[in-house]
């Protein structure tokens, strides 16, 4: 089975089947655009294009996700305000700014509701971002099963790279080196005020619980004592 990949190549306004690469029997075309999950029109349009599309969403603790998102923006625009400033509409009152995209994206239940109007849950796989780091092969098994692929990627293909602090792919027999994700993945996050983390835990808790109920899976974000 060959997988043809199309990485963020389609402008959403022109999302059409004829812009996808041609596949023959035994091939799957994949398209990766994280923002589709939070784009209001995406489910409707993708459903119109191909209602049997399988959807894979990697979700991680929304607080860590927000800090990761902020870290990425900070690397491009070092002059932006602190995370703590951006997170609140009114910090004295503890009023979270849910319209800040770094926080809004993590309200997974809200976005999923929109997708479930068009796609059954059986067509959506939620991959745990935490387990993708602690047990990449385990998560890849779920992905392969979900896509109806033979289980090829397994434990033996990964090793933990101490320098990177993340799992990487071992050197394939026909290639020159091991393969870690690039420098922009796995950045060190700034230390965030613990009170702000606490406030965010309270903010996300009901949405996380709603998300567990909708997906039938407990991602254990309530149990995590500390954010990275
Ligand atoms: N194996 C491996 N190596 C490196 N990084 C890993 C890996 N597995 C998961 N992650 C986590 O992926 C996070 C970056 O992915 P993104 O979703 O931000 O990527 S993207 O920009 O949307 O394409 C990145 O987030 P940050 O730690 O905030 O950089 C990582 O935590």
In short:
By secondary structure, the chain is α/β, with parallel strands linked by helices. It has helices at residues 42-49, 62-76, 83-86, 101-104, 108-116, 129-134, 136-146, 194-215; strands at 2-7, 27-32, 55-59, 88-90, 95-96, 124-128, 158-161, 166-169. 3'-phosphate-adenosine-5'-phosphate sulfate binds at residues 34, 68, 71, 132-133, 166-167, 181, 185-187.
Structural summary, described in words:
The structure is a single chain. This protein is an alpha/beta fold and 228 residues long. 35% of the residues lie in helices and 15% in strands. A two-stranded parallel ribbon has the order 1-2. A two-stranded parallel sheet has the order 3-6. Strand 7 and strand 8 form a beta hairpin. Helix 5 runs parallel beside helix 8. The longest helix has 22 residues, at 194-215. The structure holds 3'-phosphate-adenosine-5'-phosphate sulfate. 3'-phosphate-adenosine-5'-phosphate sulfate is lined by residues 34, 68, 71, 132-133, 166-167, 181, 185-187. Belongs to the sulfotransferase 1 family. Keywords: Disulfide bond, Glycoprotein, Transferase. Its EC number is 2.8.2.-.
């Amino acid at each position: 089975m060959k997988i043809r990949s199309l990485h963020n190549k389609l402008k959403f306004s022109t999302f059409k089947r004829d812009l996808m690469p041609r596949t023959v029997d035994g091939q799957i075309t994949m398209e990766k655009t994280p923002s589709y999950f939070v784009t209001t029109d995406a489910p409707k349009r993708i459903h119109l294009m191909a209602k049997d599309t399988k959807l894979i969403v990697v979700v991680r603790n929304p607080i860590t996700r927000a800090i990761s998102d902020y870290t990425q923006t900070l690397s491009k625009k070092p002059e932006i305000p602190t995370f703590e400033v951006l997170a609140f509409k009114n910090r004295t009152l503890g009023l979270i700014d849910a319209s800040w995209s770094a926080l809004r994206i993590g309200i997974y239940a809200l976005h999923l509701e929109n997708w479930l109007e068009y796609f059954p849950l059986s067509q959506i796989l939620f991959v745990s971002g935490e387990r993708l780091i602690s047990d990449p092969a385990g998560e890849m098994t779920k992905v392969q099963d979900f896509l109806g692929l033979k289980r090829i990627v397994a434990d033996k293909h990964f090793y933990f790279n101490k320098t990177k602090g993340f799992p990487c792919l071992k050197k394939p027999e026909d290639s020159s080196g091991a393969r870690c994700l690039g420098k922009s993945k796995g950045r060190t996050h700034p230390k965030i005020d613990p009170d702000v983390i606490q406030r965010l835990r309270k903010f996300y808790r009901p949405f996380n619980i709603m998300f567990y109920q909708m997906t039938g899976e407990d991602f254990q974000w309530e149990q995590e004592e500390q954010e990275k």
